[in-house]
Give the backbone structure.
Amino acid sequence: MKKAIVLFSGGIDSTTALYLAKSEGYEVYALSFEYGQRHDKEIECAKKVANAAGVKEHIVIKTDIAAWGGSALTDTSIDIPEGDMESKDIPVTYVPARNMIFLAYAASYAEAIGAQDIFIGVSEVDYSGYVDCRQEFITAMENAVNMGTVCAVEHNKKIKIHAPFISMKKSDEIKLGMKLGVDYSDTWSCYNGGLNACGICDSCKLRLHAFNVAGYTDPIKYEERKEE
């Protein structure tokens, strides 16, 4: 069976990507990261989803992007802002070069186990404007991987980085996930790590909007907020 590495945060995008890879006949190796983010809720959810999906292996890598800060997700002195879906500015929740780091790990993992496919759930349609979620970046990373791995250079076994949702709206992604049998109740998208999702950060707003447009009710719980 062909093998695939799935970069797996436990959110909507990576969960849908994982199920898509499975539906295409891949033996899935899920790769998650404790990178110094301000909460571990997403890792807890990732473990639940990976177990339910029956992946071949789920590895959680510990690294420390928080050592140099630069993001509200890794530096608790920077407040998580309320999401603004109309803004064109890159929010402070952008983590410097995060996907570059994650894909480098995935490439090493892939070469070690003989996988030639990596899945990442990024989109440049419904997203927060992060520069490492664009097709240009994915193409550049794939080229770099295949210039710096023995499997590609010496054995012509090139590694393909799949970004199946790069041009897809998140609402259409959810519709696809439903067809694939995804249970989104154990997924986590919120930038805050409370018992329930906050409902007001950028990621929560994108998620809620997507479920609404897709015609489904988001199965996770959100904090109740009084109208001002």
Summary: The chain has seven helices and five strands.
